[in-house]
Amino acid sequence: MYVDNFFGVLFIFGLVCAILFVIVCLPLWLVLHYSRSKRAHRILAREDREELQRLEDHAEELAERVDTLEKILDHSAPRWRRTHSERE
Prior knowledge:
94% of the residues lie in helices and 0% in strands. The protein is mostly helical.
């Protein structure tokens, strides 16, 4: 009798623990997990924006250099554009 009563109480205790875990711990764990992952994505997005800004600045510098080289070529070899277009 005592053993049957002990396993019944143990079963009820395990059931109560499982229900408390599902009701309290699991939602809290999910909320904290996804809020942390969302924050991590936001941080990565900020780093990506900074990298994109750096690349955009670098592209503008390269475009200025190409414009300068074209001006130099226009001055020193005025027919370079026609020669280049005839090759294509």
